[in-house]
Write a structure and sequence with these properties.
alpha/beta, RNA-binding, four-stranded parallel β-sheet, 17 helices, four-stranded antiparallel β-sheet
RNA sequence: GGCCGGGUGGCGAAGUGGUCCAACGCAGAGGUCUGCAAAACCUUCAUUCGUGGGUUCAAAUCCCACCCCGGCCUCCA
C-alpha cells in the first residue's frame, strides 16, 4: 500500500505521488503572532508534524515550510494597546509558539519564514499580477481582480455569482468587484509601512504565503496544509495569486484539518477561536498535562474530523499514555535498559510479519493518516509487552521483548509518542506538589515499616501519598511510584 | 440560501458491502496475583451503528428523504 491523502481540491482521497521522486515540499500556514496558541493551533501543527514524520519514515526527503504572519491589523492593534512595537509583540508570540510546539513534540519546520522579511518577493509578485492585468491599483491600494482568474472558487467549491449575491463583503467603491481582495494596502499614519511602486504601505494577508511558498518550494510543489477555515478565502486567494503570476499549477494536494470545538458546561459546542474567547491556551494546559498527553489526545481522532475538547478528555489520554509507558517501564525492569528506537525497516516487517504490527501501522498511516488506527497498534504492542513480561525472562522471551519494545518506540516515534524515559512520564509534577525527594523519603520510611511487618504504619504512609496523588507499586524487591493527580 | 465535516457502547474513537467488523483507549464488573494495594494478565461490557424508507443473497457501510450537532460563505488553525 502506498500513501493516499484526501485532497481538498477535488474532495477525494488519492494516491500521493511526489512531483520529484523521493522528495516532498510541504507548506503549512502558520500563525498570526499576536496571542498565545490554543488547542486548535496545536491540532494543525501536530497533524502536519505527523504527516512530515510519516513521509520521512517512508523514505522521502521532506522540506517543511511553516510561516509566521508578523504584520497585520490584529498585530498592529494589539501592539498599540500594549504600547510596544509590532516587532516586539510578534517576536514575543513567535517565541511562545516555538516553546509550546517543542513541548508538544513538534519537530521544528525546516524553514519558518516571516512576512516582514519577504517584502521584495511580495512586491515582485504583485507587480507581475498588475503587468498581467490580474491586479489593479485603486485609491492607494492594489486589488486582485477575481473575475480575471477563471479557476477562482475551484478549491472552495464556490461560484463567483453566488458569492456576490449573498455577499457580506464590505462595500468598497474602490473595488471593481466586491470579491476582489487586497494585495497591497496603502499606508495609514502611524502604521508600519514599506515603500512600493504604488506608494508606501504594507502587504495584504494572502500574498505572503504565495510569495514565500514559491520562494522556498518553487512555482509548483506537492502539499499545502492548514485549518479548514483557511480554504476560503485564504487558500482560494493564494491559488489565484500564485497561478495568476506563474501561469503554472501550484499545489498538487491541499490538506485541511478539522476544528477543535470548545464545549461549555451546558454541553453546547462551538468552534474554538480567539474571537469567541472560548479557547484554552496550550501553555495553560501544559501546567497540568504533559505535552505528549495533549498530543495523544489530538492524534486519537482522525485529523479531518471535528473534535470536541474538554479537560476530562485529556485525563483519558493521560491514562492511555500511562498504559503505553507502563509497558515500557515493565520491559525496562526485565531488560535493564530500553532498546533504542530504531528506524523501522518496512521491507523486513512486511516480509517477516505480513500481518504484524509494523505492517498494520504503516497501512493505517498510509490511509490518509489514520492515526487512531495506528495508535491501536501501539496499544496492541503494549499488551504484547506486558504478556511477555509476565511470562518470564528466558533468552528467547527477552529477544522477543526487545523486538516489541523497539517496534513500539520506532512506530511511536512516527507519531511523536513513546520516546520519553518512562519515569519522566510517571513523575510529571503538575502543580509543584511534593518533590521526588520527599516522595522517596516517605517510601523509604514505609519500606522500613514493611520490613518490620508494621503494616499499619506502612498503610498510613501510603494513604498519605495517595492523598497527594502518588500511587505506589510494590514489587518483590523495590517500590516504584507515579503521580496520578 | 450555497458549500463542507460529523452523528457508532457509560465516555472518547476506528471501521464505509460479506472475512471473528462492531478495532483500540478510558471508565465499570468478576477472577488471578498481592501482607493490603497498585500494575499486569484472564473474563466480561453495543443482536447494534441519528430516524424512516429502499437496493442487495448480504448494509453501520450503497440510494432516497428527514432530524440533530458543528463549520465556511468577513478576520480566524
Amino acid at each position: 500500500m502506498t500513501l493516499s491523502l484526501y485532497n481538498s481540491l477535488g474532495r477525494q482521497k488519492q494516491p500521493f505521488v511526489p512531483r520529484v521522486p523521493g522528495q516532498v515540499g510541504i507548506y503549512v500556514c502558520g500563525i498570526t503572532a499576536y496571542d498565545f496558541c490554543h488547542i486548535g493551533h496545536a491540532r494543525v501543527m501536530v497533524s502536519f508534524d505527523v504527516l512530515v514524520r510519516h513521509l520521512r519514515a517512508s523514505g522521502l526527503k521532506v522540506t517543511h515550510v511553516c510561516n509566521f504572519t508578523d504584520i497585520d491589523d490584529k498585530i498592529i492593534r494589539r501592539a498599540i494597546q500594549e504600547g510596544i512595537s509590532i516587532e516586539a509583540l510578534s517576536s514575543r508570540f513567535i517565541d511562545a509558539f516555538d516553546t509550546d510546539m517543542a513541548a508538544l513534540g513538534v519537530t521544528p519546520p525546516d524553514i519558518q519564514p516571516k512576512a516582514t522579511e519577504h517584502l521584495p518577493e511580495m512586491r515582485a509578485m504583485i507587480q507581475t499580477l498588475i503587468d498581467k492585468g490580474l491586479a489593479y491599483e485603486s485609491g492607494g491600494d492594489v486589488f486582485y481582480a477575481v473575475d480575471r482568474f477563471p479557476a477562482y472558487g475551484l478549491l472552495s467549491g464556490k461560484h463567483l455569482d453566488e458569492l456576490e449575491s449573498g455577499a457580506r463583503v464590505d462595500v468598497d467603491s474602490r473595488k471593481r468587484n466586491p470579491l476582489d481582495f487586497v494585495l497591497w494596502k496603502g499606508a495609514k499614519p502611524d502604521e508600519p509601512q514599506w515603500p512600493s511602486p504604488w506608494g508606501a504601505g504594507r502587504p495584504g494577508w494572502h500574498i505572503e504565503c504565495s510569495a514565500m511558498g514559491v520562494k522556498y518550494l518553487g512555482e509548483s510543489f506537492d502539499l499545502h496544509g492548514g485549518g479548514r477555515d483557511l480554504i476560503f478565502p485564504h487558500h482560494e486567494n493564494e491559488i489565484a495569486q500564485t497561478q495568476g503570476a506563474t501561469g503554472k499549477p501550484w499545489v498538487t494536494c491541499w490538506l485541511h484539518n478539522g476544528f477543535v470545538n470548545a464545549v461549555d458546561d451546558a454541553g453546547n459546542r462551538e468552534k474554538m477561536s480567539k474571537s469567541l474567547d472560548n479557547f484554552r491556551t496550550i501553555r495553560e494546559l501544559l501546567t497540568a498535562w504533559r505535552g505528549e498527553t495533549i498530543r495523544l489526545f489530538l492524534l486519537n481522532s482522525h485529523y479531518r474530523a471535528p473534535m470536541d475538547f474538554s479537560l476530562e478528555l485529556l485525563d483519558g489520554a493521560r491514562a492511555g499514555l500511562g498504559r503505553l509507558y507502563g509497558a515500557l517501564r515493565a520491559a525496562e525492569g526485565i531488560l535493564g535498559t530500553l532498546p533504542e528506537a530504531y528506524p523501522v525497516d518496512w521491507e523486513h516487517e512486511r516480509q517477516e510479519y505480513p500481518q504484524g504490527p509494523g505492517v498494520r501501522f504503516r497501512d493505517a498511516m498510509d490511509d490518509d493518516l489514520n492515526t487512531p488506527q495506528a495508535i491501536a497498534v501501539l496499544f496492541e504492542l503494549a499488551k504484547g509487552i506486558n504478556r511477555l513480561v509476565s511470562e518470564g525472562d528466558s533468552p528467547s522471551q527477552r529477544q522477543e521483548l526487545t523486538r516489541h519494545v523497539a517496534l513500539l518506540r520506532g512506530l511511536g516515534g512516527i507519531l511523536g509518542l513513546c520516546g520519553e524515559v518512562p519515569e519522566v512520564h510517571f513523575r510529571f509534577n503538575p502543580e509543584g506538589g511534593w518533590s521526588d525527594a520527599e516522595v522517596e523519603a516517605l517510601i523509604a520510611q514505609r519500606n522500613e515499616a514493611r520490613r518490620n511487618r508494621d503494616f499499619q504504619t506502612a498503610d498510613r504512609i501510603r494513604e498519605e501519598l495517595t492523598q497527594a496523588g502518588i500511587v505506589l507499586e510494590d514489587s518483590r524487591d523495590h517500590t516504584i511510584w507515579r503521580r496520578e493527580a
